[in-house]
Amino acid sequence: MRPDIDLRSYLDTRGARILLTLSVLALLAFAALGGLIQPAVMPQGTADVEFTFVVLGLPLSLIIPVIAVMMTAGEWSDRSIQNTFLQRPGRLAVLASKVLAATVVVAVLVGVAIGLAAAATWIGGELMGEGAVFSSFESLLATQLPVLAATLLFSLAMGLLLQSTVISLVIAIGLPFVISTAGVLTMTFGSELISDIVRAVDLTAAATALGTGTAGAFELLPLALLVLLPAAWGIRRWSLREVG
Questions:
Q1: What are phi and psi of 79, to 5 degrees?
Q2: What does the pLDDT look like over 10-34, one tens digit per residue?
Q3: How far apart are CA 59 and CA 64, in angstroms?
Q4: How many C-beta atoms surround the C-beta of residue 136 within 10 A?
Q5: What is the C-alpha separation between 162 and 160, in angstroms, rounded?
Q6: Computed over its alpha carbons, how large is the radius of gyration of the chain?
Q7: Are 80 and 111 in contact (CB under 8 A)?
Q8: How far apart are the C-alpha atoms of 121 and 192, rounded to whole Å?
Q9: What's the CA gap between 239 and 225, in Å, rounded?
């Protein structure tokens, strides 16, 4: 297993450099939006680090699927996976390397986002407002990080299963939006049966419940349906799919 090879080959491409540059710029913009403007709109005039990071979660919900899908399904789409398998015959080792490399890239970006959230909150609260609130940092770790981890796992599962950049991206980005919209609609109509069906595939809500320690056995169902089963099928397909 050589995740360093996959990490280096991904970072050496022009597309990855453009994507990472745009990602950092987007994180900077949203950090400024969340941290610097917050004191002006909050009644108490303070800036809360959790709120700033929630704002940063918007670009991260798009950046994470793009990186995860491109690193797992990109070579299948452009057919360069054949050269990779010729140089590194162990398919499962290649798969594990790509997953690990994608996880490292996403972890670095999330770490950058947390640092930007803290810096923007401090600047906005202490220099432009009535103070910065960092007491919610533990809540940030318990609620926001599990949601981002769920986004990464779902995106990796779609990349492994579908092995197509375009289709994987559409599903990885579009399906969570559809499920969250359906959740709002079911609350409006008050149907318990439909609410349970939506809850069974609501990975974001399940991740939040797992992070805060309020999850029951039912919250494991979205993890099984949207991550474990697609990933298992994707690993089998990765091992057996004919190349060429």
A1: 65, 10
A2: 888 888 889 899 999 999 999 998 8
A3: 9
A4: 17
A5: 6
A6: 20
A7: no
A8: 40
A9: 21
Specify the DSSP class assigned to residue 125: I
How far apart, in Å, do the first and last CA atoms of the chain sit?
23
> CA–CA separation, 114 vs 117, rounded Å?
5
CA distance linking residue 234 with residue 76, whole number of Å: 13
Tell me the C-alpha distance between 211 and 144, whole Å. Answer: 8
| CB-count burial class (<10 Å; 0-12, 13-18, 19+) for 62 | middle
Q: Answer yes or no: are the C-beta atoms of 48 and 136 closer than 8 Å.
A: yes
Q: Are 106 and 64 in contact (CB under 8 A)?
A: yes
244: pLDDT strictly greater than 70: no
190 token code pair:
């008050």
Structure-token match 């453009």, residue found: 18
Contact 179, 202 (CB under 8 A): yes
| pLDDT number for residue 235 | 94
**175 vs 164: CA distance, rounded Å:** 16
Is the distance from CB of 24 to CB of 112 less than 8 angstroms?
Answer: yes
Instruction: Give the pairing type, strands 132-133 and 47-48.
Output: parallel
At residue 227, the pLDDT reads 95
